[in-house]
Design a protein that fits this description.
Length: 489
């Protein structure tokens, strides 16, 4: 197949082999698919993933509106990004977003996985498939895995997500009812809200905990609900089942390993089994997980070999959101919040210094990888002073902000020019950043009050301004977003 013949005017595929195409998907950024985080995650389990500070190729299979890879493309201009999606409306939106951002290192392909031949794609360093495996037919899954296996470089990484049966036990029947209600003519959101209310009340009366997915019925958009629940091939999988599919395609499990059982001597395990995937299933079922992400590679290792070497994170850094720092300590990231470089770049190696075992060192770093308030960086940095009026360092930052004005203020992202960090900002910081450039700080209180939907209390406004000056302005200045008005560099 020649990709160039795919027309921008192509009709939306009807049914798409059972995948829901009746509505567009949500526009989200998925931080866990940042290749810098993926590479670090792989290194924790002995796999030397392709370097992310040199040119590499990243392909997102099922990219939707391309919001994630467009932000990644801006953060890492030295890399090449490709987004593939079957829905023309997604691809049109992705191309428009990339064009308006002025991106030259990302392209989008409208195609189903079964339409593509391996030669249609370049050799791949990082491949991702988020929200695909549990939502498409076996034929589409097999086509996807064949493509990835054919084009992924020997040390390349394929990161996937899928639903797990344990966390969806209540939802299997509810999904059937929701799908049947919509097929009978009900509005998706109306049916979801009503079912959520009924089952939330019933489960509470039974003394059980209401699953997050049931609460989602009460709040999520119709775009999310329809793509999650209305496809013909919706199916949760055990991790061992996904690993088996990958193995059949020539892709080996890299990690993450969560269970400590495979590291224990055989006579000390809870069950006399040698298969590491058995213990991963045991861990995930016991944790009542409903969603999982895992890594695969042609050169993946098998446990326990992957677990016996001391984890080596390489030269990598994280930055922590000032918003996360401002909250009280809460467990897994406490040691990071005590780090002397907290306001700037924290070396990942330093996160492991107080951990006593290999598993503890890995889990400490994994907690940061999976936390949306920790950001992967292209290099080191330190906070910079920016006390008075400020200006944006690059007109492209204003474009990035203007293209997100239709998004909820808590779901907008800034790409830091000096570090490549992709960070969300609390609404009041976004308002100052978007409207306060070139203005005296004395205007910030009125700016916040005019932007807020509900008039904030004076004390709340004062706290916001204080946090801007003490935390956010130095944080943004150090990463090259703002500088003192009239400054250079």
């Amino acid at each position: 197949m020649n990709i160039q013949v795919i027309s921008d005017r192509a009709q939306e595929p009807a049914g798409a082999d059972g995948y829901f195409t009746g509505n567009v998907y949500t526009r989200n950024y998925f931080h866990a698919f940042d290749p810098r985080k993926v590479a670090l995650e792989a290194r924790l389990f002995g796999h030397q993933a392709p370097a992310t500070d040199k040119p590499f190729v990243y392909v997102d299979f099922g990219c939707a509106f391309g919001f994630t890879i467009c932000l990644l493309a801006r953060a890492m201009p030295h890399a090449s990004f490709i987004g593939i999606d079957i829905m023309q409306r997604h691809i049109d939106g992705a191309r428009n977003f990339a064009r308006r951002l002025g991106l030259k290192n990302v392209r989008f392909i409208r195609a189903g996985f079964q339409e593509l031949a391996p030669d249609d794609l370049p050799p791949i360093d990082y491949a991702t498939a988020h929200g695909i495996l549990s939502w498409v037919s076996a034929d589409v899954r097999n086509a996807l895995l064949s493509l990835v296996a054919a084009r992924l470089k020997p040390e390349g990484i394929f990161k996937v997500s899928h639903n797990l049966p344990a966390g969806w036990s209540d939802m299997i029947g509810i999904r059937h009812l929701l799908k049947s209600s919509v097929e009978a003519g009900m509005d998706t959101q109306a049916a979801a809200r009503r079912l959520g209310q009924l089952f939330s009340r019933a489960i509470t009366q039974q003394g059980r905990t209401v699953a997050p997915q049931i609460n989602d019925l009460l709040s999520k958009s119709d775009s999310y609900l329809e793509h999650e629940y209305l496809g013909e091939h919706w199916q949760p999988f055990q991790l061992s089942e996904v690993a088996g599919m990958m193995s059949a395609a020539g892709l080996n499990f890299v990690g993450p390993y969560h269970s400590s059982q495979i590291e224990a001597p055989a006579d000390q395990r809870v069950l006399a089994v040698d298969d590491p995937m058995f213990f991963e299933d045991l861990y995930l079922i016991g944790s009542n997980r409903g969603f999982h992400m895992s890594l695969y590679s042609p050169a993946g290792q098998t446990a326990p070999d992957a677990l016996m070497a001391d984890p080596d994170p390489g030269e990598a850094w994280f930055s922590v959101s000032p918003d996360r720092v401002a909250r009280e300590k809460s467990g897994k990231l406490d040691h990071i919040l005590d780090h002397p470089a907290l306001g700037g770049a924290i070396p990942v190696r330093d996160m492991m210094t107080d951990a006593e075992t290999r598993a503890e060192r890995r889990n400490t770093v994994l907690a940061a990888v999976f936390d949306p308030a920790t950001y992967a960086l292209n290099g080191e940095w330190q906070p910079a002073e920016c006390d008075g009026a400020f200006e944006l360092t690059d007109p492209a930052l204003a474009r990035l902000m203007s293209l997100q004005r239709d998004r909820d203020p808590g779901d907008r992202y800034m790409v830091m020019p000096a570090t490549g960090a992709i960070a969300s900002l609390p609404p009041f910081m976004w308002w100052i950043l978007e409207r306060g450039a070139g203005q005296s700080p004395d205007t910030y209180p009125d700016l916040i009050r005019s932007a807020a939907v509900n008039t904030p209390e004076p004390d709340a406004v004062a706290r916001c301004i204080g946090r801007w000056h003490s935390q956010w302005a130095p944080w943004l200045a150090g990463q090259g977003v703002i500088r003192p008005q009239g400054g250079r560099g």
